[in-house]
Here is the input.
Amino acid sequence: PPPPGRSALQTLFDTKICDCCLMCNINTRFATSKGYWKDPYIQYFARSVGERKAPEINRGYYARVKGVNHLLDAFIRNSECNCQVINLGAGLDTTFWRLKDENLLPKKFFEVDFPTVVARKIHNIKTKPPLSKHLIETHSTDSLILDTQSLDSDRYCIIGADLRDISALDEKLKKFHLNPDLPTVLLSECVLVYMTPSQSSNLLRWAAEIFHTAMFINYEQVNMSDRFGQVMIENLLRRQCSLAGAELCQSLDTQKERFLKTGWEHADALDMMTVYSMLPQDDVARMECLEFLDEKELLQQLLQHYNICWASKDKLNLGNSAVCKSFDLRLFI
Here is the structure.
């Protein structure tokens, strides 16, 4: 039976979203196994993949990882790690472990996702020493706060919550010592698109009201009104997965406007084809040699239908607005 207050249809919809999360991790593991980028921790969250993934998919994931990490790392460096990160709809993401290895760990790293996803991730962390080791090394007391839907340590916290329920989300984050006065970067990757426009607007407005110095990084679909975009929507519908927020993914302008209308001071966006062209060309050349790509036009279409949108508030004048306004080649050097 569905949980209290949830219809059977909504429960099915949420389950399909979780399935997409797992597929994302499988795709990530495949791409890293081919050498597109390094992620020594994904093996503990995603099974190995027998079937080959299309090169254009792997290149798309490469651009996504490089683009999002660039903005995230720039924010953390600007604050000299005196900040916090909130990964919304984090799934089985490994960013916390990467930042620890690269000495870029913020004061605290929060993750939020459905309780079922969180339970699975906590189980993996508990049973895989290379994962738990990083938590132990950054924790100052003998015991962690741990149950099936949450794990809290000094520097890492994972919470089971529904992003559509803002009051419950706010309560749980504060319970685990979220600090509204710290510079904060919020991440969402293919998350807002599964929420209705009113639900995602409530989330963005809450974040803008809570944090005075912050950046929100959002990766998801764009240009969904053309034929290619409609085919993407239809393919997901056939898998019983609806993009409830597709109307806000019509253009780069609609992506930016959603932030400006909910209290963010500055917003900008680039489609992933543009981001791909801005990445360090020596590493792009290395990556492109990994697999032959026959369908270059398909890659271009795919990248033109995803984007990174980022918004900022900068009361403390840390320079994060400058980061937001200057997403160019100089920042990749």
About this structure: DSSP finds 13 helices and nine strands in the chain. The CA atoms of residues 136 and 222 lie 40 Å apart. Confidence is low (pLDDT under 50) at residues 329-333.
